[in-house]
Amino acid sequence: xxxxxxxxxxxxxxxGSLRLSCAASGRIFSINAMSWYRQAPGKQRELVxxxxxxxxxxxxxSVKGRFTISADNAKNTVYLQMNSLKPEDTAVYYCAFxxxxxxxxxxxxxxxxxxxxxxxx
Length: 121
Hints:
The relative contact order is 0.33. By secondary structure, this protein is mainly β. It is elongated and about 50 Å long. It has strands spanning 2-7, 10-13, 18-26, 30-39, 46-52, 57-59, 67-72, 77-82, 91-100, 108-111, 115-120.
């Protein structure tokens, strides 16, 4: 019923920038929060940034001042602008939406397919 499609990953040199996008489609009644996670090889999935309805944002300490999460609510799309990238930012990045599909439904989490970000030194 709900699909999340990510784009924008790739290979970049250290110090460079990338912008990830994640667009949700399907039966969407309301969105409570949009987040970006990442998972590096051999590591657990990590919450990178969240934006909630109203625009409040949170970031993991390691990306504060370098990454910016934003949203276009009219397009059900979330972005992650990543600047000053470091090799340790290399991971598969996933978007996740907490949303309702109807007035009577509860909030459920939906995930994108993941996009690879590789930062070379």
